[in-house]
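Hi, here's the filled form for the chain we discussed.

Project: internal
Contact: R.S.
Residues: 60
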Amino acid sequence: MADNDEPPTSPLRAVVGLALIAGLIVGVLFIMHELQHAAAIQDCVASGRTNCAPISTPAR
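And the returned structure, exactly as it came back:
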């Protein structure tokens, strides 16, 4: 008797896993970018400047 009676696995699980990992990487990169931007604004404000973040006003 053969102990390896497992059916062959489909590549769909591997593709889903790769897509999940790629999504997590993109999410982490986005969060790192946002944190870097927030840190830059905090550094600007901590140095005493007043024009650190532009304020957009609606056109009249």
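Let me know if anything looks off before we file it.
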